[in-house]
Write a structure and sequence with these properties.
The chain has 198 residues and is of the alpha/beta class. The protein contains eight helices and seven strands. The structure holds zinc ion (ZN).
Length: 198
């Protein structure tokens, strides 16, 4: 028996598909939304649609941005010869928060996972290789220390080595299996400073 109306059930169901939202949270959010004033709900819906329509990949580093080129790539003061490779825009944000990294980034939007059927062609890897045709001194691989992150790091390392460009991997001060976005800034900086040659 359905406890709620079809519309509520549909809303709960949609919310429950979002990452990190379980059945209970979805229910709580759904009731919260229903009880919100109509104009607030409209604003939220419009904000979601606007973001969806206007956010795209930076033409250089592939992070999510509103412009053709993201503010980091557009910043002349950044060191454009050092590229840090991260799995997603959230990891980029984590390193940006330290305020100590002066290079630029490359966002893969995923990691190689044979188990999930995600191969090198499914992430922004050839885009990275293309960037290396420019002036690059170092590629710092800052993928997560999960199995997928390590597999990806090894794969990229092997790919770049023959080019003669310096390839480094952040130190494993980052806990195994840990998502970069949840790690504090001091640990992130230590991992960056302790990076090793691949
Ligand atoms: Zn960019």
């Amino acid at each position: 028996m359905d406890l709620y109306s079809g519309h509520i059930n549909k809303l709960i169901d949609e919310l429950a598909h979002l990452p990190g939202i379980g059945a209970k949270s979805a229910q709580r959010l759904a009731f919260h939304l229903i009880n919100m004033p109509k104009e607030k709900v409209n604003r939220l819906a419009k904000t979601i649609m606007d973001a969806k329509e206007n956010v795209r990949y930076c033409s250089e580093c592939y992070t999510l941005t509103d412009k053709e080129t993201c503010p980091i790539c557009a910043n002349e003061k950044r060191d454009h010869r050092t590229i840090m490779v991260v799995e997603n825009s959230r990891d980029l944000a984590a390193y940006e928060k330290t305020g100590k990294y002066e290079g630029i980034y490359h966002v893969l939007h995923g990691a190689i996972s044979p188990m999930l059927g995600i191969g090198p062609g499914d992430i922004k890897l050839k885009e990275l290789i293309k960037r290396l045709e420019g002036d690059v001194d170092e590629v710092i691989i800052a993928t997560n220390s999960s199995l997928e992150g390590e597999t990806t790091a090894m794969y990229i390392g092997k790919l770049i080595k023959p080019t003669g460009i310096r390839v480094t991997r952040i130190a494993s001060g980052v806990p195994v299996g840990g998502d970069l976005e949840y790690i504090d800034e001091v640990t992130l900086l230590r991992a960056l400073e302790g990076r090793t040659e691949l």
